[in-house]
Amino acid sequence: MEFSSKLLEKAVQEVAQLPGIGKRTALRLVLYLLKQPAEQTLFLTDALQNMRNNIKFCTSCHTISDFDVCEICNNTSRNHKTICVVEDVRDVMAIENTQQYKGIYHVLGGKISPIDGIGPSQLTITSLVNKVKNDGIEEVIFALSSTMEGDTTNFYIYKQLKDLDVKTSTIARGISVGDELEYADEVTLGRSIVYRIPFENSLKNS
Amino acid sequence: MEFSSKLLEKAVQEVAQLPGIGKRTALRLVLYLLKQPAEQTLFLTDALQNMRNNIKFCTSCHTISDFDVCEICNNTSRNHKTICVVEDVRDVMAIENTQQYKGIYHVLGGKISPIDGIGPSQLTITSLVNKVKNDGIEEVIFALSSTMEGDTTNFYIYKQLKDLDVKTSTIARGISVGDELEYADEVTLGRSIVYRIPFENSLKNS
Questions:
Q1: Which of B3, B4, B84 to mutate to test the interface with A (most CBs of A within 10 A)?
Q2: CA distances for B145 relative to A33, A34, B44, B107, angstroms
Q3: Quick one: which of A32, A84, A176, B105 has the fewest CB in 10 Å?
Q4: What is the pLDDT of residue A205?
C-alpha cells in the first residue's frame, strides 16, 4: 500500500499490530476515526492508556481488577473453600453470567503452550498450589478449554494437587443445550453417554 | 457482559465504537494490549492522536496529506488537465497502485446517501465544479463505486458539468481479469458485450 501521508501510514501500522486486524481493516478503522469528531479519538486513546497504566490484577485470584483484591475475592458471602481454575478474565465473566457458581476463581493467565513459548512458570500455578496448601481449600474445579493445551495444563496442575487433601473436578463435557445429536462430534457424544447423569438432576437449573 | 473492572469496561466500550468491532472482539483486543508491554499501547494511542490532530487535507484535491497541497497535486510531471473523481483516499491508493493513471484526483469524501444523512453539500462537489470552470480541465473521469449511491453521485455531478466545456467519462465496467464468465452477474456481462473494445486494445497493459 502506498500512503499519501506518513501520519496515516503510522496509525494504520500500529492498528494493524492488533491480532486479527489486517492492513485493510486498520485503514478502514483509521479513516472512520478521521471522519468522526476529534473527541472520539481522544476518548478511545484515553480509555486505552488509562486502562493499560492503571489496571490491577487481584493479588489473590489474579483476575483483572480496579482494586488490589477483586470484588469476588472480597465478597464474604461467597464460598472461599471452592476455587474454579480458568484461563483468563473472559472465562470469569462467562461463568459469572451463568449465576450458577458461588465460589471464588483462580485465573492462570493462559495455558501451557510450548508453540507460543508459554510454559508453566509463566502461569500462576505456584500461587494456586500455595493457596490450596495454606487456605484449607476443599475443592478445585478445572474449567479450562477442551483443547490439547487446556488438557495439558489441566493435567500438569492436577499432578501437583493430587497428593494434597483437596477434591478436584472438571466441568462436564457433553452436548450443548439446544444442539442436535447428529451434529455432535463422536468424542463428545461418547463422553456424554459414559458420564450420563440421573434424569431428575437434569431437571434442576433448567 | 459483567466486567470485573471499570477501566477494562470503559476501554472495551470505546474500542467497540469502531465500525465492525463488536464487544467480544473489543475485549479480545484490549486483553491483548494488556498482555503486551505498555509501550505497545503507548505507540498505538500516540499514532492515533498524532494522526487525528495533525493530518491535513489537500486544499486542491481534498485527499489526506501531511502537507497543504498533496504530493500528487504538487507533481508537475502529472497531467493537471485530467481529474479522476473518487470517493475517498483508499480509491486514490488503489488507482495509484495500478500505475496506469498520470492525471490528478478529486476526493469527494463519500457519496450521496440520504439513509446515512449524506447530501451533496457534505461532499466536495462545489470545489470540483469550480476547478472545472476555472482551471481549464479537459476531462473528468468518474471512478465511483458501481452501487446505487455511486451512480446517484455520478449523475448528480454529471448534471452540473454537462454544460461546461469538459469531457466526462466513467471507468469501464466489465468482467474482472481472472474471473470466469459463468459466475459473472448478467448486468455486468451484458454491459461488457455492449461496451466491447477492439481486441488489439486489450493486448495493451496486460
A1: B4
A2: 22, 21, 32, 13
A3: A176
A4: 57
DSSP annotation of B121 reads G
Nearest residue in chain B measured CA to CA from A99 = B2
Give the count of beta carbons closer than 10 Å to the beta carbon of residue B53: 11
Write out the E strands in B21-174.
56-57, 64-65, 79-86, 103-107, 139-142, 167-170
Polymer length of chain A: 206
Q: Which domains does chain B have, with CATH numbers?
A: 6-54 (1.10.8.420), 72-171 (3.40.1360.10), 173-206 (no CATH)
Residues of B in contact with A33 (CB under 8 A): 18, 48, 51-52
Q: What is the arithmetic mean of pLDDT over B76-82?
A: 95
A/B interface, count of CB pairs below 8 Å: 167
Confidence of residue A182 (pLDDT cuts 50, 70, 90): confident
C-alpha cell at A154: 489441566
The residue among A194, A174, A193, A199 whose CA lies nearest residue A184 is A174
Residue B137 · residue B83 · CB < 8 Å: yes
Distance of residue B187 Cα from the nearest chain A Cα, in angstroms: 28
Counting Cβ atoms within 10 Å, is residue B134 exposed (0-12), middle (13-18) or buried (19+)? exposed
ipTM above threshold 0.85: no
Residue B19 has a CB neighbour count (10 Å cut-off) of 10
* B127–chain A nearest CA distance, Å: 19
- Kindly list the distances between the CA atom of residue A94 and the CA atoms of A97, A143, B3, in Å, as whole numbers in the listed order: 5, 11, 10
Question: How would you write A87-101 as a 3-class SS string?
Answer: CCHHHHHHHHHHCCC
The model's confidence at residue B205, banded by pLDDT at 50, 70 and 90, is low
